[in-house]
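Key idea: predict the complex, not the pieces.
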Amino acid sequence: MKADPKSVLTGVHFIDGDQACCEGALAAGANFAAGYPITPSTEIVERFASRAPAAGGVFLQMEDELASSMAILGATWGGAKAFTVTSGPGFSLMMEHIGYAAMTETPCVFVDVQRGGPSTGLPTLPGQGDMMQARWGSHGDYEVIALCPNSPQECFDLMIDAFNLSEQFRTPVMFMMDECVGHMTEKVVIPSADEIEISPRRYTSVPPSEYLPFRAGPDGIPDMARAGEGYRTEVTGLTHDEHGYPAMDWKSQHKLVGRLVSKIRDNANCIARWEEHALEDADVAVVAYGITSRVVGQAIEMAREEGLRVGLLRPVVIWPFPEKRVRELAKQVRALVVVEMNYGQIVHEVERCAAGLARTLLVGHGGGAVHEPENILQILREAAR
Amino acid sequence: MSTAQMNPVENFLRMDRMPHIWCPGCGIGTTVNCFARALVQSKLLPDKVAIVSGIGCTGRVAGYLRLDSFHTTHGRAIPFATGLKLANPGLTVVVYSGDGDLFAIGGNHFIHAARRNLDIKVICVNNFIYGMTGGQVGPTTPLGAVATTSPYGCFERPFNLPFLAESSGAVYVARWTAYHVRHIAQSMVEILNKRGFCFLEIISPCPTLYQRRNKLGDGLDAMRYYKQKSTVKNGANTKEVEVNFGGDIIVGKFVDIERPTLAGAMAAQLSKSPENV
Amino acid sequence: MVGSQLRSVPFVKRRGRVYIDRNRCKGCGFCIEFCPPKVLRFAAAYNDHGYHPPELTTEGGCTGCDLCGLYCPDFAIYGVLGRPDGSAL
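Result:
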């Protein structure tokens, strides 16, 4: 289905990533947001609070992130399309409900505009230290989908993709921005509503008497119902059977959690998305995401000028990780250089996928400022040797 | 009085999930009977009544009631209900949970929802203990009562729930005990049909843990105690209705006022904004 | 005059019937304790789970008030209002 013109701010804009993220959510049809102020994400919901009435949505600032992350799930089961925004400390608070969303297969989007951490850290400066947390932050076994924009334009475009993926796979989706991408102002082109494809929620079409809320379809994903339509479903975070009833035994655990994990893992190859630059003849492949990938672009230019054959692999969907492509690259290149604004997170994935076929090097630091291209270049020279 | 040839509660139960997990003499099932009868009397469409609960023995109510049921995380039934009600205002949203879930971990959410006058009905079964996890002290455990995490007797002053609810802004506050079944059903009918944040506290026995550990007998002994020591004082000053160990229990409907609901206030405010006119 | 405006309402004697699901009962005793006409008692026999369910002491003693139904935490008993001849309303 197409986007609703009422919510789409068609035109050419000069806005920052936070603003663009909000517009992306609106264009995707989000009509409910709950949030709690936290730098550098607050502008997203400030804009939503302002835009929502005209676009037919509701925003409520909740008393904390625990409430925000749960209010969006309640809204979703009431029939809304919902998201929340936060940064590191709030992301930590939301972890229980990310797990609840995964367990109850509630489609929604969690935006994390990363800042320097850990703890209160650097509220106004960038970091990329939540990448592993996005994947493993909640307890137990579950899979998530996470996207990583590197420009305000992508903050708009990828938000729509985030919502679409959440609906297709009935799963919470993490939107991993960073303070730079959130606060940098660039040209953002918002197309007309009929050019924006929205994945509809997979509501069931069978009557209540035949409906089993957690019986998976052939794709491993059940169809959804919403409150107030006579389905009278039970939704619980306890391990449950196809009725949604608590089922406290290992067989039910394997069946349910196995399915929750498989529905993403088995589709990893079609969910995965990345961008490649100058990799065809590369001896060294750089892996970078978010704002760091922009700096890496500069470093690669400088490297190429020196005659080094360096290219970039930029994961756009970072979870599931583009394993297959990295494994292929590891056969081709001498070294994989991971540049990230942390002390090593995605590098572990890269090293795992490389499986020893190529050296894996990290250019990491604690955040607070983006990398200097010269520092990256130094490592690229080493890697190419 | 039932005139149907079927236990009226069964119409609202997931009979394929019976028997339930509650102990002999636990009062939660009693409150569920009252709720089922109140649903019938309120004339609400059951398809439009959603029940949201947290974690704990009372939290299991959502699973047993055959309505749109949401068994959420510990303490977060009210935020879930907030989103549910705002996204789907046509629903009557009932939060049915226990004293620990609503007032310890969930305390912050309770006071904010009451402050906002969110149109939800909060039914708290208060058994003075954390039952599901084996009998730990909770925010309503009376001073001196024994619990597993206060084995020498509770030394924290408990919440006076009606007082907390009223001062946070609830527009309906009532307390009954599991003995007062007709009053409970009546209050439930009233809150189902009232707009705004309604709070109903139901003091109820936990025979296995609270009663037993404090040598208070079983569930029936608790009910006899409620009958003997309760005084109905409708309109009482909620400041004065705290519950002490073995003391008198003041029950009744304490608050029943009108205030703009969250949705109403939101709509009114947004309509004033020049951008949205 | 006030008296001439009074209608006389015929007295209708009602009888109740109580339905007991013996195996749901967990012997808490609430129904027996709070039955207003006091026509319930613990049965001598056990149910399948080792509890003594309630039984009616006096045939025709139940008023159909359904207080037992309101009290029972296990949904094991409820009362129904009927006609004096025993038929349902």
